[in-house]
Design a protein that fits this description.
239 residues; mainly alpha; two-stranded antiparallel sheet; 11 helices; 3% strand; elongated
């Protein structure tokens, strides 16, 4: 607040500002931890969506081919430390009478530790993300294998006059056949599509291409390239 403290007891016993600061730090670490979890998953052999720069990984003690995403794991781990600082201060304050008590000197250790931890995590995290390499071919194949364009295929039939309930059922059957044959909707032959409905035509492949599916999500906050660019510009403006 600005100006003189309105109440003298509040002036010496209040530590709300410390709790609020630690809460903000904890929330920052929550987002860094969630991002770290995705980086750890994405950089694994099972996903291989990204590759971290060697500066932010370490080698395995036994497996020479392995790159461990240690920086991301450490950031994820240090999130618990900042949570602990917040809970420690809340616990210190919860039973104190409304006056200054020596217990309150514990606020400094919590605040300084959380500040140092968040600062070092941000200093590592930003360049780690800036230097990581995205592997678009792998992400594209994963999106195809996940059949994220199945809804667009159902919409395709709906736009041709089929009730959505019927389109939903047909697309479900086609997806099941694709899974059994280890193929994707993009490569499923047209003559096979026509076994399910005569409404299918050559134009379906353009309708269900991942590029088309993403570009159509162009409402505010959507996933289309134009929408994402607008979101990035907005955030950069805030910063």
């Amino acid at each position: 607040m600005n100006g003189v403290t309105a109440n003298s007891i509040d002036g010496v016993s209040d530590r709300d500002f410390c709790v609020e600061l630690l809460s903000a730090f904890a929330l920052v670490m929550t987002h860094l931890s969630r991002f770290s979890e995705e980086i750890i998953l994405w950089s694994s052999w099972e996903f291989k969506f990204i590759e971290l720069d060697d500066s932010y990984t370490t080698g395995s003690s036994i497996m020479p081919q392995k790159k461990n995403p240690d920086m991301a794991e450490l950031v994820r781990g240090k999130t618990g430390r900042v949570y602990g600082d917040l809970m420690a201060l809340l616990t210190v304050l919860k039973g104190l009478p409304l006056a200054y008590n020596k217990d309150m000197q514990e606020d400094k250790e919590c605040v300084f530790d959380a500040l140092d931890t968040v600062k070092v995590c941000l200093e590592v995290f930003a360049p780690m993300v800036a230097t990581m390499k995205v592997l678009p071919e792998n992400t594209y194949k994963a999106a195809q294998k996940g059949f994220i364009n199945a809804t667009d295929l159902a919409d395709y039939l709906t736009k041709k006059g089929m009730p959505f309930r019927s389109a939903y059922k047909i697309v479900g059957q086609i997806v099941a056949e694709c899974i059994a044959k280890d193929c994707v909707l993009d490569t499923f032959p047209l003559d096979e599509y026509k076994k399910y409905s005569d409404l299918f035509a050559e134009d379906l492949y353009q309708e269900i291409s991942l590029e088309t599916c993403v570009s159509k999500r162009n409402s505010e906050g959507g996933a289309s390239p134009a929408s994402v660019r607008a979101q990035v510009a907005y955030v950069k403006g805030l910063l």
